[in-house]
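seq:
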Amino acid sequence: MLADIEALAVRPEGEDATPAAGPPAPPASSSSASAVRGRTYAGLLSRLHQHARGHLCEVANAFRAILIEAERAFFRKRRLGLSRPLLLCLFTIAKLFPMTDYRHAVGTPFLIFLSSALMQMRLENLEGVHSYVGLNAILIESLRDGNGKFAAEAVVAAFNLLALQLPRRVLEPTKHQGLKLPILLVERGEDALLGDFHPQTPKSKDESAENGELRNRWRMLETHHDAENLVLCAYHQLDVLVDLYRGMAAFPAIFDAPFKALEDLLRQHHPAFNPTSSSSSLEDEKWEAIRRAHAAISAKIKEYCVNAEAHRTPLALRTFRVRPIRQFEPLLAEREENAVKSEIREIKHEIREDKKRVIRHLTAEATVERRAREKEHEIAETQRERRYNQVMGQLQAQQHIMKTVDAIMARGKARPKKGISGAPNPPAGGEGDGA
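struct:
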């Protein structure tokens, strides 16, 4: 099924990837062929969704591999864009996996890749701008499916697309000395890639009415490298973002200030907003669609700014906490140029783990030896105390015996006492008989 999706996204042979200075070639596929391709893609997406219900891990691993391949292709092309098959596969990810989960094995790296690619891309030709519009359209579609998640990269990308109507010297008069737009300017050339174009071939009223609504919308399989179409797609993407974030308290800072600065520059330097007296009616008709799109988005931003300022609440009353998108599984860190750094990082990690393991082993051995020495010391102290008590008991017994003997001998040597009559007792040994 992935091969069928890639085959469906191959450009028709009649489409030129980088048209010359003349008017762009018309699409090779008719409206009926476009409808057939759309129905074919919808059928493939439905089959893939049914297959993913029973083989979730297999499908997730397949699209994770597609994400890695998309990043490798992005850097292989020197950040100039992606091919249409890869864009269609990324669009399939946005339709297949949930965008509401903040920690999803495919959705989270997918959103991070889109945001980083939009900020790192180099806009040097119409083919790159075409790919840039496609990436931003996929990100906006994912944000809409994610219940209003906010990504500043989508807003910055839309304003950068509109800024391609002006040369770089108008946006940045002196290099590295500040911009006239309060947004981040992506890497681009000096020329205004979307600043001028040749008028389309005249069409009938019925055909214009049929394609008028879809002309400014990004269609993955039918949008071509036409400067006017790309400008209208950029205005439509900004319109979608304005409707998506109309309830944000920071709406004036996000949309009003950059749009006013861009509008002032366009009125000063762009022929569509600064017509001259020598301009012909054909020149005026050429810019009519862009002027209408610009006026519509300008009126909408002014209206939403008034509503946002009227319904703002103090920050102290806000109890929610903004949850950032977290990448818990570094899928996109497998670039070829970072292979050596990754290997060095892994070796250092292994060395640190080995050191910790050795320290734990030595600490355990030292603990065992210390406890053995403490036990031996305790046994020796117990034996010494027992021997001391035994010797002291023997000495005390001998001392008691000696005291008893001394007392008996002392009583034997005592002076004779007088009798009851008062006569002295006769001396011992019969001395009285001899007298």
